[in-house]
Amino acid sequence: MLRRIRKFLALDRQRKKLFLQAYVVLGKVRYALLKKPFKQLVAELDVSRDAVVQAPLEPSARATALDVGWAVRTAANFTPWESTCLVQVLAAQSMLQKRGIAGVFYLGATKSGARDETPGFLAHAWLKCNDEFITGESGHGDYTVISSFSWP
Description:
Elements: H1 2-10, H2 13-35, H3 38-41, E1 46-48, H4 59-76, H5 85-98, E2 103-112, E3 120-129, E4 132-135, E5 144-151
Antiparallel strand pairs: 1-5, 2-3, 2-5, 3-4
Helix pairs in contact: 2-4, 2-5, 4-5
């Protein structure tokens, strides 16, 4: 625990602020997912089943997007609640949209279950700004995109 505190204190002021903001936004998103239908949470976003093509990000916007991704992924490791890929994606989406950075998040599914198990589905969410993964990169290739949600 002491090592984690030292690591946090060693961060620059901007990273500390971003980490704390991500932690709070993760909590708000988790609570919202428990209380509201998903459809209501993404009502203002553009929904598509096709791939969304985005314009390249300016270098400063790209750096900010990557920093937001770092903060969300890192803060998710410290939450006492479950910060699943969907919670992380929605938190990052909220933080990026407030900064005026466009992106797309994807929901994917794949079949699960071995022969002796009941078949079902697994789901995963990931977020990209142009070609950069912000959250959810790990394992995304195993999933078929069923919806994408973008914002300007």
